[in-house]
Amino acid sequence: MKAEIIQSLMDWNSWQQGDFPIELLGFSRDYHLLDYLQVPEIKIIEGARRVGKSTLLYQVIHTVFKTNKKLLYINFEDEALKKYSLTDIVYTYLEHAEIDYLFVDEIQNCAEWVSFTRKAYDRQEFKQIWISGSNSSLIKQEYASLLTGRNLAIHIYPLSFHEFLHFKDYSISKLPLSKNQRVAILKLFAEYLEYGAFPAVVNRSILKKELLLAYFNDFIYKDIVSRYNVDPEKIKELAIYLATQTTKQFSYRNIAKMLNCHINTVTDYLSYLQSVFLFDEIYKFDYSLKNQIVNDKKIYCIDSGIAAAVSFRFSEEKGRTLENIVYCELRRRQLQIFFHKQKYECDFIIKTELKISSAIQVTFSLEDAETKAREIKGLLEALETYELTTGTILTYDEEYTEKIIINAIERTIFVVPVWKYLLQSYS
Length: 427
Prior knowledge:
Blueprint: H1 2-12, E1 42-46, H2 53-65, E2 71-75, H3 79-82, H4 86-94, E3 101-105, H5 114-122, E4 128-133, H6 136-146, E5 151-155, H7 161-167, H8 179-195, H9 199-202, H10 208-225, H11 232-244, E6 249-250, H12 252-259, H13 263-275, E7 279-283, H14 289-294, E8 297-301, H15 304-310, H16 312-316, H17 318-332, E9 336-341, E10 345-352, E11 355-362, H18 369-385, E12 390-395, E13 400-406, E14 409-417, H19 418-423
Parallel strand pairs: 1-4, 1-5, 2-3, 3-4, 11-12, 12-14
Antiparallel strand pairs: 6-8, 7-8, 9-10, 10-11, 13-14
Helix pairs in contact: 8-15, 10-11, 10-15, 12-13
């Protein structure tokens, strides 16, 4: 046992025998993880597979390694290590060398880890403990009670548009852009819309869709089917259906009828898809929490590229692609998101503390008079309902301001290109 553990750990910690492999470091992201080295709590990095969690861990390891070589990286994707407990692995290694910094990747594959990390943290056995995981239910159910007050959760998403531009080696020092810069940005934004924002997909020039389909199958079969007692075909059928319905309202009951299965099955299967961060839902806003839960919801995908790869219809509806991208950005900004629906609909309303603070509508273009009238009606209804004086309509590349007076109250609508909205917090 000990020989197998040590050999696997040496393979994963090859830098202990020489220089740190620079190729592991990838690109910098917008998470400022090195700041977390200044605080003692257990760091838990969570997010979907292939969003770059391991690369971010390597970046932290590289920084630590410059001044302290007493560190250990454990990857529970390794079939040899999966067979052992975290306790067995760590204490076997401690017979070989000291550990000041402990890094554990894909922790959801480790049966016991919370009791070990809690004890190690409370006893101050290590200077830092960093953990990553790709399944929220397997992680949070474990640490929610036992690690309360001892951890900091850091959620990692596919690339923001700002990060995407960095990966493409394109920088923007400030807004507004020159005409040539705008042309270049729109070309890159079109790629961002079509193929999404998984780092490895962004970095390759061919077979992007094939890689996205491989990711999709890994979500279904490796992350869900291998761990839960589910019907593989049913849950894949549900995932494909949700991809075709992304940004649309849905109910568990209607999906159950469509899949010819029990509503409880749909509820469970959707929770699994959410636990691996493939899909998420938002509620229709209501001051009653009970009403929020029972009302229809809207479904969104972690990445527009995956949704397009498995759903031809979704890829053809660019307005929905834009809306999905805006949803991902709002989540990235850690905002509390709902949608508004009365007589008309508004795509996103943002709650800040106890009140609605902003309303956002998303559409590909306002050039069509019927589309413009519908989008403005939905936005104005939200503005009136929540007593707001300004609202935003995000489009592919239209930009202007419109003032509308209703019941003696002037309301301002800002029409803004989505790509500009995505970059505003970085300019």
